[in-house]
């Protein structure tokens, strides 16, 4: 095995061990850094972890013993968004892959809502603040134990239910209506899966099939029972010209979901790939 492949295999094995832990024991920052290390074997995790520690220390210096939670949150947001300048990407920056890679987000202080939320959660947890992630459709926010909603991509502003509807409208149009079920806390494993889905979308948009395949393989580590990952791997392998491998995966998908809504499309793709088999 060549050195790059050995590093990737080691990173994936480490990622598999991490996401197999009980939910509360999953190190979210470490998992996000393992995702960022895909295809980057020389990535050093320590500077990012140290920067998160520094951010927590800076907040701590501004706190007095016994400060209520709302004061602690205000100090946290002062440090993250006013002093350090963490922000969401503008339209020209939005599709940069670095917005989903935690090390680059911390270094450049620009990231997607979910990676900004990871920064806020990790710093808050270091301070003993029990915040949690909330995965709205098309947007990721943070919740507090007393039900307050925070938008890291909006500089830590507090959200109302109407604000949440506005975020849905901005991301998805008028077809999705906000409801309270959307506010359920999401676990660390689910957050990592959502980061991977964002990365998959970026790679697919750039037609970078090998990179998209690598992301799907990591998704399959988190969600090993989801047959859609084998379908996606098959489709990507076909794009890469590996038709025999692609056919095996697509046939397996049909065996598991013979009546799926996409079964007809998958059968059509199998017919195309069969004629190009290598």
Explain this structure.
A hairpin with a 5-residue loop joins β2 and β3. This protein has 12 helices and 5 strands. It is 58% helix and 6% strand. It is α+β, with helices and mostly antiparallel strands and 278 residues long. The protein has a 5-stranded antiparallel β-sheet, with helices on both faces. Among the domains are: 44-186, no CATH class; 225-274, no CATH class. α8 runs antiparallel to α9 (209-222). The longest helix is centred in the last third of the chain and has 18 residues, at 188-205.
Name a few traits of the molecule.
alpha+beta; 12 helices; 5 strands; 58% helix
Summarize the structure.
The protein is 58% helix and 6% strand. The chain has 278 residues and is α+β, with helices and mostly antiparallel strands.
Level of helix content?
55-70%
Q: Which structural class matches the secondary elements?
A: alpha+beta
Q: Can you tell me the residue ranges where pLDDT is under 50 for at least 5 consecutive residues?
A: none
Kindly report how far apart the N and C termini lie. Answer: 24 Å
């Amino acid at each position: 095995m060549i050195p790059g492949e050995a590093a990737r295999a080691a990173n994936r094995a480490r990622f598999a061990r991490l996401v197999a832990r009980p939910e509360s024991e999953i190190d979210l920052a470490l998992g996000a850094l393992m995702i960022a290390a895909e295809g980057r074997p020389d990535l050093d995790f320590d500077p990012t972890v140290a920067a998160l520690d520094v951010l927590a220390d800076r907040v701590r210096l501004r706190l007095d013993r016994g400060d209520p939670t709302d004061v602690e949150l205000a100090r946290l947001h002062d440090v993250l968004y006013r002093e350090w300048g963490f922000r969401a990407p503008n339209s020209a920056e939005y599709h940069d892959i670095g917005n989903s890679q935690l090390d680059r987000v911390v270094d450049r202080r620009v990231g997607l809502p979910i990676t900004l939320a990871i920064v806020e959660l990790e710093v808050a947890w270091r301070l003993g603040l029990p915040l949690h992630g909330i995965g709205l459709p098309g947007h990721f926010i943070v919740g507090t134990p007393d039900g307050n909603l925070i938008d890291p991509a909006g500089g830590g502003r507090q959200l109302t239910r109407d604000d949440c509807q506005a975020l849905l409208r901005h991301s998805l149009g008028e077809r999705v209506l906000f409801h309270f079920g959307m506010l359920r806390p999401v676990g660390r494993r689910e957050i990592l899966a959502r980061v991977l889905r964002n990365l998959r979308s970026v790679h697919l948009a750039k037609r970078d099939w090998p990179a998209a395949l690598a992301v799907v393989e990591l998704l399959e580590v988190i969600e090993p029972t989801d047959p859609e990952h084998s379908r996606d791997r098959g489709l990507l392998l076909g794009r890469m010209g590996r038709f025999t491998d692609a056919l095996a995966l697509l046939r397996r998908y049909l065996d598991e979901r013979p009546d799926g809504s996409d079964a007809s499309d998958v059968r059509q793709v199998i017919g195309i790939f069969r004629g190009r088999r290598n």
